[in-house]
Amino acid sequence: MVIVFAVLALAVLVTANWYLWRRLFRDTTSGPGWVRRTGAVVVAGGWLLAIGALVGERTGAPFWLQQVLAWPGFLWLALSIYLLLGVVAGEAVRPLLRRFLERRDRRNAPAAVAVPQPEPVPAGPVHEEPAEPASPRLIAAPSRRLFVSRVVGGAAAAAAVGTVGYGTYGVLRGPRVKRVTVPLAKLPRAAHGFRIAVVSDIHLGPVLGRGFAQTVVDTINSTQPDLIAVVGDLVDGSVKDLGPAAAPLAQLKAPAYFVTGNHEYFSGAEQWVEEVRRLGLLPLENARTELPWFDLAGVNDIAGESEGQGPDFAKALGDRDTTRACVLLAHQPVQIHDAVDHGVDLQLSGHTHGGQLWPGNFLAEAANPTVAGLDRYGDTQLYVSRGAGAWGPPTRVGAPSDITVVELASRQA
Q1: CB–CB of 371/352 below 8 Å?
Q2: Among 263, 275, 342, which residue's Cα sits nearest to residue 304?
Q3: Which residues contact 32 (CB under 8 A, 6 or more apart)?
């Protein structure tokens, strides 16, 4: 079954990229030449770099090699998505543009006139008048097809480059701050206005490094929260490679708590738990701490089940005082169902990136109960952050990054 899926996926990938090459390079040129050959190298080479970046990250390739592959490979991954969307959308434009050109040429064509009978020509040398050149506004059918292909291909390429460029700029400049008020029935009046800075999916790695981590830390500190919740997917790589990149976390100015995400289990979760503890964060590994006004609990990510370190809601929540409000840190929104069963008042999650690259939000909606924002499940509320960073392409389209300040509100106030 896996082999069949792999063969189908490869067939779809090859077909899609052949179609992309055809529309952008073959159809926009009048014959074989260096443009078509360059296009084939760009498309095939881009995917080789993208696959190399993905494989290198997962297999723990030398970090310098990951950095060499990551930028061009991941950016091509994003660019190819929007190039493909652009040329597919262009299929609807092509017949309209051709029809417009045909009608314009018919309007501009010279009207037919009667041809008079030739008069007798006297003997002697004949002087022929030069033929009048055809109207430059008329486009022959082959040239018309080429013109349409170039217009549509150029527009698709410009739109794709602009979209990916702006989406990459949005990630690199750092996340924006969102503010959400969440009322909790059990929260005492003294805790009204308590602020939790929620940050998820920073994804430090071969693309987003120490400078990005510093931006995230500075943004969190600027909100002056009472508590910081780091809800998983902090890194994409080992402590050895990314320890220096994560060092700015030691500058967080409020009590900070951490739970694992699925990417921690690709990167050495135990080592990262110890590293964040060394940096001053408090890991909640299926554990709970009783703060003065509410309980704060955390569970491991589902990906930890493969290592015998999966979520244990009973251990984290089983013996707590249910008259107290409870806030749960859990990386994936799908963990909300266990949170409801254990009487959690508010779950804070990430994982989805809000879809990251439109139309990825539709896939995220199919896999998660909530993709972004505040939602309610029974007596339990769920807040999902779109995340501070990005995985794979350092690009977001239709899903801007955020750090959310959740302000708790007491209904007794």
Answers
A1: yes
A2: 263
A3: none
